Every structure is written in C-alpha cells, then in structure tokens.
Structure prediction request, 246 residues.
Amino acid sequence: MANDDGAGTVADADHVEPSGHRLDVFKALGDNTRYAIYLELARAPRPLSTAEVAASLDLHVNTVRPHLERMRDIGLLELSVDARGDVGRPQHRYALAEDAPSLGLEPPVFPLATRLLLRVAAQAGASREDAVEIGREQGRQDGSAGAGSRSACVDAVMARLATLGFDPALIEWPRRDRATVAFGHCPFRDLAESNPDLVCGLHQGLMEGFVARHGGGTVAGFRTLVDRDPCAMDLVGIDEAEVVAP
Prediction:
C-alpha cells in the first residue's frame, strides 16, 4: 500500500519478492539433506568428492549425487575434476561457488583482515625468516610428542596437512628413510601469490615446528609456488637427518 505521495509503507518495503536466483537458492537449501551437504562443503578446507561427502554424513553416494548436481545447476557449487590417483575415471570434487552465500560460516571480515595484516607486516619490514620463525612457534604448539619413528612422523604430517586443507600426496623414494609430500591444494594460494615470502614462510615454519615437536624426522627441503617444482616438502628420517641437517 502506497502513501498519498507515492512512497511505499514500511510493510511494503519489507515484502520484497526474491529474485529468481535467490528463490532457487532458498528452495534448494530448504531441503534438509541438501542443507546438510552444503554445510559440510562450506566447512571443508578443500573440495570434496561425492564419496567423501557421503561418508561424512553417513549417506549413500546415490543419495548425495543428485543433491550435489542440483546445487551445482543453480550455481551454489563448483565442480573440479581430479585426474590424479588410481587408474580409472577422474574424480569429481565439489566446493562452494565463489559467490555462494556463506551462511555465516566464514565472516567476510576474516579474509579482509588477513590481507590487511599481511600488508602491515610487509610494510613493517617483516622478512621470510621472521615468518618462518613465527610459523615454527605455532607448529610446535600444534604438534604433540610422537613415538619418534619416521613412519609415525610422516603419518602425523599427512594428517595435519589434510586438516589444514592442503590435500597432501605422499611420494615415497626408494630409500625408506626419505619421502616427499606434495601439496595438491593450497588454501592460502591467493594470499601466497601476492606475498609468497610471508605466506609460504609461515607454512614452512608450521611444518618445521610440527615435525620437530613430533620427532622422527626433519624437513630437509621446502618448495613453494615460486620454484620450478612447487608446493612440496622433503622429509628425511632421524638417522639421515643427523647427517644432512646443518
């Protein structure tokens, strides 16, 4: 209902029909199963496969698959194809679309604050060595003393990297006291591309501190996205570490 001067009332202003896209989103997330799937993907640090979503929610993959496709059709999800791994059909992975609603799970101020803090650190003259040392302190806090074996150390590193969203892949060398861990996904990539010294330095320090706290090995090499063979680190067992460590 409009006033005499043509302006709408407060009630009129509040009763605004959602656009077609928003209506599709509301309808899609109005289903309890789809909403649960969406929350699972929103909380995940990396894109998830249909099987991973199904396992985390204790659902059958045939139940999950059409819900994923429905949300993808209306632009809530993005699909990526992972051709690595076992021989066979490439694996489809799903993640929230860039413009998908966050549902309050990730306050938009956090990414902004991170970018601003990086700029402050860079302008204050923070070096890569400073970032590595801060990362080491945090890594030591994150880790826990382990059994001291190389295999336990590698297992702990793989689990920690997976939790952080780096989608790690283990590459074993012929010598069992040495391994390379590749990072299939970097949750900090956008920040790292603009400031690799600080961001990649923090990641390196995190891993060095974590491994030192756990025991059973050492980080013998750490390659970032600026290297020819990027985003991986080399781990050596405790015997070799005593020889090659400076």
About this structure: The longest helix spans residues 196-214. The radius of gyration is 23 Å. The first strand starts at residue 48 and ends at 49.
